[in-house]
Amino acid sequence: YALPMADQRLMVFLERFTITFPRLTAMLRQTKDNKTEGQIACEWLKANPAMWMKWVPFETECALGFGMTDVSGAYVQNRSLASSCGQCRAGTHSKMIQDSIGQTSVCIECS
Q1: SS3 for 109?
Q2: How far apart are CA 63 and CA 104, in angstroms?
Q3: pTM above 0.90?
Q4: How far is residue 89 from each of residues 1, 50, 67, 75, 107, measured CA to CA in Å?
């Protein structure tokens, strides 16, 4: 069963998500200052981009079962040509590759 790409990206995000208990406790204490959870989260995001940006996968960071695609939806083998990820269709399979940015997957024809 292959999850839709949005779900795959969410899974990667959740796998990378880490926050310490003291940091979480400090955020929760701010509710006593009559701040909403949304305000607290927004302030934290603005103050900590170096932390949370590591959690967010690149648009071209494709999970297995998916491969990099260009703007027209055609499979590509090079990240410089890619704009997103698409599910590998029948007759192809996904192969994990490593490039200068990190790991991603490409769809290749079955042999």
Answers
A1: strand
A2: 7
A3: no
A4: 13, 36, 10, 10, 8
Strand partners of residue 87: 66
Q: Which H or E element spans position 81? A: none
Handedness of CA 105, 107, 108, 111 (dihedral sign): positive
pLDDT digit string, tens, across residues 25-74: 998 899 888 889 999 999 999 999 999 999 998 899 998 899 999 999 99
Structural tokens at position 66 = 């998916």
Find all residues with CB under 8 Å of 91, minimum gap 6, and list them: 109, 110
105 three-state secondary structure: strand
Cα separation, 61 vs 82, whole angstroms = 10
The beta strand positions in the chain, using DSSP E, are 66-69, 84-87, 92-98, 103-109
The answer to whether 29 and 40 have CB atoms below 8 angstroms apart is no
Amino acid at 107: C
